């Protein structure tokens, strides 16, 4: 994946799903697909614009069939964790709850001045419990 500007990562995901190790620019969303702990196991990332770094990651894969196959299998296994059920579960359990929390926080900040004014204009009646 030589592109340093089109880094959404679909090509990387497709390659890994097909059991092909990836050599890609460390840019955009690709480091999220191949995080630091997976680098060298499922693929390699090179520094954008650094041709020598890119070639140093490509050469071992070009000349070592066993390494290609091992990394390809690891890439495939990594991608199997992201089936539709897992993706839906992540959206439902993590991202949805985070979005709700964020909205409630924003709403509280937005309505704070209105609440202050409302309390001053319409004070709560005093209740006598005798």
From TrEMBL:
Cellular component terms (Gene Ontology): chloroplast envelope; membrane
A molecular-function term among this protein's GO annotations: UDP-sulfoquinovose:DAG sulfoquinovosyltransferase activity
Cited InterPro entries: Glyco_trans_1 (IPR001296), Glycosyltransferase_grp1 (IPR050194)
Glycosyl transferase family domain span: 1-77
Keywords of the record: Glycosyltransferase, Transferase
Gene3D superfamilies (alphabetical): Glycogen Phosphorylase B
Keyword S-adenosyl-L-methionine: no
One BP term from GO: sulfolipid biosynthetic process
Name recorded for this polypeptide: GDP-mannose-dependent alpha-mannosyltransferase-like
